[in-house]
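Hi U.,

Before I forget, here's the chain from the pilot set. I'm dumping it here mostly so it's searchable later in email.
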Amino acid sequence: MEQTGIVEECAGAMARVKIMRSSACGDNCAACGLCANKETLIEARNTCGAVKGDVVVLNMSGGRVLNAAFLAYIVPVLLLVAGAAAGEYVFGSENAGILAGFALMAVSFIALHLFDKRLKSRYSPEISGIARHGSDCE
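Structure:
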C-alpha cells in the first residue's frame, strides 16, 4: 500500500504525516456528508530523514495491512461468537451466552489497547521516499 503525504512534525525516528483519506464511496461526499474531514494525521517511521514540509511517499506491505485488519476486526468478532457459544453451553442460557460473548469481545478490545504501543511500531507505515522537499525545510 503506497500513499503520499506532507510531513507536519518530526520526533526522533517517527514523523507525523498529513494524508488525504481515500473515499470508498467514490468521492461523492454530497450524497451522505460523512467525509467532511478528508485529511488525517498518521505516525510513520522516518527512515529517509524527511523534515517538516516534505512531500513523502508512505509504504506499508499488503500483508501487514491485512494482519492489522484481522486483529482489529476479525478477532473481536470471533471472540464474540466463541464466547456466546461457550456461555450458552456452560450456563445453559441464551442471555448468559450473549453476556459471555460481549465480555470476550471486550477483552479483545482491552488487549488491543494494552498492546497498542507494541502493535503500533510493528504496523506503522514507513516513509519510503521523499517526493518533493517542502518550502519550509529547516
